[in-house]
Amino acid sequence: MKSTVEVTETNFETEVLKSNQPVLVGFATGWSLPSMTLDGVREEIARESIDYLKVARVKLDQSPNLGLWYGIRCIPTMLCFVDGEERIGIFGTTSKEAILSPLNLVIKTHGAETNLFLFDLKDRKDASKP
Questions:
Q1: Which of 27, 78, 103, 119 fits 90 for a cystine, CB–CB 3.0-4.6 Å?
Q2: Which of 39-53, 91-105, 111-125 has the lowest mean pLDDT?
Q3: Greatest CA span in the chain, whole angstroms?
């Protein structure tokens, strides 16, 4: 079972900026209820994405400079880095599907053919039909 990688100011460059795969970094605190709410979602994404996406967490109370360097003003914030560059920002508490939706495109353009969604939109019932 793959879990979230703990990232600090010391290992951020190695774990995130120099990673060979896209990295979803959650910036949060250990005491914020919205941050704690997304911990489980982040762990699920980490387990399900095995070969396509690295999932990391920065505890801002332990690595405050990372929050300053990336202009984190909302907790929780998730940033997706590809080839050392920030590509996607997801701000506040949201659903797993809302997190994965923009990541699918990034992962596909990075060379991995995958769909991280747990459901196929074609399988969903049309709400307008009885």
A1: 78
A2: 111-125
A3: 56
